[in-house]
């Protein structure tokens, strides 16, 4: 793996606002990297510093090992696709795509050939003579993609590229972005607040909160091994229990759950050497519901000693979602309350 982008303790302040807080991050060549986090956490600012539209208050940015912190946007081997389709309304699709090459002094024959090639990449063959306002939102975003790709950047930056599209189109274009990246093989860095989008597309993903990186990992590691409560809660849905580690061995751990007056058995250690107070995060699909008949004891769970990992509750609500149903279960709290 060859690093292509390095952020070294990059900080950005706007007056009193700390938009990006000492971010260090390495992105490798050929990755589809996602920056994921809620609105206002600093994603766009980080991307704009990479593109050269903002100058960091502190820290350095390297591309291909070269310090580009103060290099202007047009001299960096990156290109950006914006959230709103930034196309010129008075130019045809082909002229829109050729525009950047013309600015670079590329001859007309080569311009045309490369623009046609870029159009084909985004599956708009034959639509070069259209005007942008005669196209759908999805098509215009493809034009914006072609316009960025035609310059053959080393890195393509995408700021919420699908967020202006409706749900169905968004899903369609999501697959296409993935196919496109496979085909052109260049590094993609995409900003999104949509976790489904990030998990579906990214090879690796950074979760941001309030200007800082919470965790950088593959989508499956973010989901299976969230580093913090915040990441567990932000990625997918999760049931969170306050817990205290009673035993922590390499092959199992026992967690006391004082809120529900029960104990949990984990088939691996938790390695919580610095604190015994933890959050136990349980994904909903890992929970089995067993109906209880009168006088019957708790069910036997495979791989778990009797008495652990069972909580009594009452189904309070069922939301039918087609391919799945979400059960809300009220469990008795140790202090007599309910949740
Ligand atoms: P995101 O893209 O994650 O929604 P941004 O990077 O746009 O977040 O913004 C991060 C923070 O920096 C926000 O509090 C935002 O209001 C602030 N901010 C961004 N750009 C500017 C600017 N040009 N001037 C002042 N504040 C800004
Ligand atoms: Mg943004």
Automatic annotation (TrEMBL):
It catalyses: ATP + H2O + polyamine-[polyamine-binding protein]Side 1 = ADP + phosphate + polyamineSide 2 + [polyamine-binding protein]Side 1. One of its GO terms (molecular function) is ATP binding. InterPro entries: AAA+_ATPase (IPR003593), ABC_SmlMolc_Importer (IPR050093), ABC_transporter-like_ATP-bd (IPR003439), ABC_transporter-like_CS (IPR017871), Mo/tungstate-bd_C_term_dom (IPR008995), P-loop_NTPase (IPR027417), PotA-like (IPR005893), Transp-assoc_OB_typ2 (IPR013611). It is an enzyme of class 7 (translocase). Keywords: ATP-binding, Cell inner membrane, Cell membrane, Membrane, Nucleotide-binding, Translocase, Transport. Pfam families: ABC_tran, TOBE_2. One of its GO terms (cellular component) is ATP-binding cassette (ABC) transporter complex. Residues 5-235 form the ABC transporter domain. Its EC number is 7.6.2.11. GO terms for biological process: putrescine transport. Part of the ABC transporter complex PotABCD involved in spermidine/putrescine import. Responsible for energy coupling to the transport system. PANTHER family: PUTRESCINE TRANSPORT ATP-BINDING PROTEIN POTG (PTHR42781:SF5), SPERMIDINE/PUTRESCINE IMPORT ATP-BINDING PROTEIN POTA (PTHR42781). The complex is composed of two ATP-binding proteins (PotA), two transmembrane proteins (PotB and PotC) and a solute-binding protein (PotD). Belongs to the ABC transporter superfamily. Spermidine/putrescine importer (TC 3.A.1.11.1) family. This is Spermidine/putrescine import ATP-binding protein PotA. It comes from Sandaracinobacteroides saxicola. The gene is potA.
């Amino acid at each position: 793996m060859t690093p292509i982008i390095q952020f070294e303790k990059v900080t950005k302040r706007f007056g009193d606002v700390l938009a990006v807080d000492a971010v260090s991050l390495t992105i490798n060549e050929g990755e589809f990297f996602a920056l994921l986090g809620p609105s206002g956490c600093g994603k766009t600012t980080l991307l704009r510093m990479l593109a050269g539209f903002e100058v960091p208050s502190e820290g350095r940015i390297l591309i291909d090992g070269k310090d580009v912190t103060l290099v202007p946007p047009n001299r960096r081997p990156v290109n950006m696709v914006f959230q709103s389709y930034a196309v010129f309304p008075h130019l045809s699709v082909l002229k829109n795509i050729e525009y950047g090459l013309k600015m670079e002094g590329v001859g007309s024959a080569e311009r045309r050939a490369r623009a046609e090639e870029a159009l084909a990449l985004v599956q708009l063959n034959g639509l070069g003579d259209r005007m942008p306002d005669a196209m759908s939102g999805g098509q215009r975003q493809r034009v914006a993609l072609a316009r960025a790709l035609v310059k053959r950047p080393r890195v393509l930056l995408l700021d919420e590229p699908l967020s202006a599209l409706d749900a169905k189109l968004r899903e369609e274009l999501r697959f296409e972005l993935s196919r496109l990246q496979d085909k052109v093989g260049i590094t993609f860095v995409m900003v999104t607040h949509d976790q489904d989008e990030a998990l579906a597309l990214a090879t690796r993903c950074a979760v941001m909160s309030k200007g800082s990186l919470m965790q950088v990992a593959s989508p499956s590691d973010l989901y299976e091994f969230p580093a913090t409560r915040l990441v567990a809660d932000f990625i997918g849905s999760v049931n969170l229990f306050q817990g205290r580690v009673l035993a922590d061995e390499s092959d199992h751990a026992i967690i006391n759950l004082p809120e529900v007056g029960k104990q949990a058995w984990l088939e691996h250690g938790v390695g919580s050497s610095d604190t015994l107070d933890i959050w136990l995060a349980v994904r909903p699909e890992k929970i089995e519901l067993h109906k209880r008949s009168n006088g019957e004891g708790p069910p036997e769970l495979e791989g778990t000693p009797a008495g652990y990992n069972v909580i009594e509750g009452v189904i309070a609500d069922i939301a039918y979602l087609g391919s799945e149903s979400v059960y809300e279960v009220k469990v008795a709290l140790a202090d007599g309350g309910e949740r």
